Amino acid sequence: MEDVDFVPNCRCCGRILTLPDSVATSPERYRRHGILRASLRNHLTMLLYRLGVSDQKLYSFYYQDFLSPQGGIDRST
């Protein structure tokens, strides 16, 4: 989630430039869960981060299988 904090903090230093280079990422999560579900998980993870959920819980939520009964955040703690 460093990038979530990094970009807004850089804005006070000047204009953000876009470089012509590209970055390759894996589409596996989108193929496995579908575009909508993977996108919703990404946005929910960012929201939970902004709400102050611990890094450990965010990690657990993001990397557990979305459809498993154990998936998601353990709200008991």
Question: What features would you describe in this structure?
Answer:
The chain contains 4 helices and no strands. It has a domain at 27-65. The protein has 77 residues and is mainly α.
Low-pLDDT residue spans: 69-77
Radius of gyration: 15 Å
* Beta content: under 5%
What would you call the quaternary organization? single chain
Total DSSP helices:
4
Keyword list:
4 helices; mainly alpha; 77 residues
Topology:
Layout: H1 2-10, H2 28-33, H3 35-50, H4 55-63
Helix pairs in contact: 3-4
Describe the structure in brief.
By secondary structure, the chain is an all-alpha fold. It has helices spanning 2-10, 28-33, 35-50, 55-63. The protein has a domain at 27-65.
